[in-house]
Design brief:
Elements lengths: L3 E12 L2 E12 L3 E5 L6 H8 L7 E6 L2 E2 L5 H6 L2 E3 L12 H13 L3 H5 L1 H17 L15 H13 L5 E5 L7 H15 L3 E5 L3 H7 L2 E6 L2 E6 L1 H5 L2 H10 L3
Parallel strand pairs: 3-8, 3-9, 6-7, 7-8
Antiparallel strand pairs: 1-2, 1-4, 4-5, 9-10
Helix pairs in contact: 3-5, 3-6, 5-6, 6-7
The chain binds adenosine-5'-triphosphate and magnesium ion.
Magnesium ion binds next to α1.
């Protein structure tokens, strides 16, 4: 396996003359928890939308496992194992936690309903579902309808349905946004669990979390890369400190 699973080169997004992402090049190391941070308006979300193909770049290339995926759509890259959580994995409110995870497994396998009527196959799917539900710590809520879950538990379920797709690479878009402290803790631990044997790229405003779990950090400011390195390195960078103090702390 190559050292870098995702390689972005010269990524640029021009919104009618306003350059929101300006010549960004970054590489995500296989197995990393790589954080993309920066002050408000830095271009993080735009960058993420370019990587997950919600937006088309004005210029630049995106390579995944050595393959140019710049012109590929979100579904095509999801099939290659590059999955954006909280977008692709819709949760059905009326279904129980278990049935939501079962559905995700079924969809991933591309199985028909008839196939699933075979008891043996159903049993195998159920075992996998129980394992995923346990991994995200919501076993006692397995029979609860998703619509009745707290915000943090719902996010846990979303991670379970994302993992059901067996992604190699997970993109997390502000995974703890809007959460209370208890849920933030839970999701932080969960990201660490989900990252085992995978690569994670996340946009995260909460620098506590970034300092706790990221292996690499890229700092964006005004559409450009300002600094890169481990958290200690970027936290000591005077340009980074200035950008946060001057640009408002996101
Ligand atoms: N569709 C669009 N059309 C025009 N300008 C846009 C569009 N989307 C984003 N921008 C501008 O691009 C810049 C970067 O926005 P972006 O949302 O990527 O920043 P961000 O780093 O995610 O900020 P925040 O931390 O506030 O979420 C901003 O100035 C924003 O106003
Ligand atoms: Mg944003």
């Amino acid at each position: 396996m190559s050292e870098h699973v995702l390689e972005v080169s010269g990524l640029t997004k021009d919104f009618r003359g306003f350059v929101a992402v300006d010549d960004v090049s970054l590489s995500v190391r296989t197995g990393a928890i790589h954080a993309l941070i920066g002050p408000n308006g830095a271009g993080k979300t735009t960058c993420f939308n370019l990587l997950t193909k919600f937006l088309t770049p004005t210029a630049g290339t995106i390579r995944y496992r050595g393959e140019d995926i710049t012109r590929k759509g979100p579904d095509a890259i999801a099939r290659k194992g590059l999955v954006r959580s909280f977008q692709i994995s819709a949760v059905f409110n009326s279904l129980s936690v278990r049935d939501n995870v079962m559905r995700a497994i079924q969809r991933h396998r591309g199985e028909s309903f008839d196939f699933w009527r075979s008891r043996k196959v159903l049993g195998a799917g159920r075992e996998k579902a129980e394992g995923l539900i346990e991994a995200v710590g919501i076993t006692r809520l397995a029979n609860t309808p998703a619509g009745e879950l707290s915000y943090g538990h719902r996010r846990a379920l979303e991670i379970a349905t994302t993992l059901a797709l067996e992604p190699d690479f997970i993109l997390l878009d502000e995974p703890t946004a809007g959460m209370g402290i208890e849920d933030v803790e839970r999701i932080t631990r969960l990201i660490e669990t989900a990252a085992k044997g995978r690569t994670v790229l996340m946009v995260e405003h909460n620098l506590d979390i970034v300092s706790q779990i990221s292996t690499h950090v890229t700092v964006l400011a005004r559409g450009r890369i300002l600094a890169e390195g481990d958290y200690a390195t970027i936290a000591a960078n005077s340009e980074v400190i200035d950008a946060y103090l001057g640009g408002g702390h996101g």
